[in-house]
Specification:
The protein has 130 residues and is α+β, with helices and mostly antiparallel strands. Helices cover 38% and strands 22% of the residues. The chain has a five-stranded antiparallel beta sheet with strand order 1-5-2-3-4.
Length: 130
């Protein structure tokens, strides 16, 4: 919950260009990094924890703070991950959900749903150094 609140404050109070680099390098497309079974299980647990915490916060912690919190949690566990930013097709725009962000790990979305209807426009990938 603390990470969600911190992410929400960062999004609300600091320009994107100042914190974008904290979440990795720009990649051309969402990656398909392979994880061993133990790392995949830990990544799924991270996603469940972030989603559950977001449901219990009175703040409006939508997709981007959730993806940011998941990314921080993955980094602490030395698991590679990425944040994907997407947009709806031009014919479907005009709602508050035109833009969306989600966290991916090992080829799966772990925080933030909606990937199939949003086209990725920016991917921030953070690999783990061994």
């Amino acid at each position: 919950m603390v990470l969600l609140v911190a992410a929400r404050a960062l999004v609300a109070g600091v320009s994107f260009r100042h914190w974008r680099g904290w979440f990795g390098e720009v990649a051309a497309t969402p990656g398909q990094a392979r994880l061993d079974e133990a790392a995949a299980l830990r990544a799924r647990r991270v996603g469940r924890a972030v989603n559950q915490a977001a449901r219990h916060l009175p703040l409006h912690c939508k997709c981007l703070p959730q993806a940011m919190a998941a990314s921080w949690m993955l980094r602490r566990r030395a698991i590679p991950g990425e944040i994907v930013f997407g947009v709806l097709d031009s014919g479907r725009r005009g709602t508050p959900d035109d833009l969306h962000a989600w966290a991916r790990c090992g080829g799966y979305t772990i925080a933030g749903e909606g990937e199939p209807v949003h086209n990725p426009v920016l991917v921030l990938t953070r690999m783990v150094k061994k």
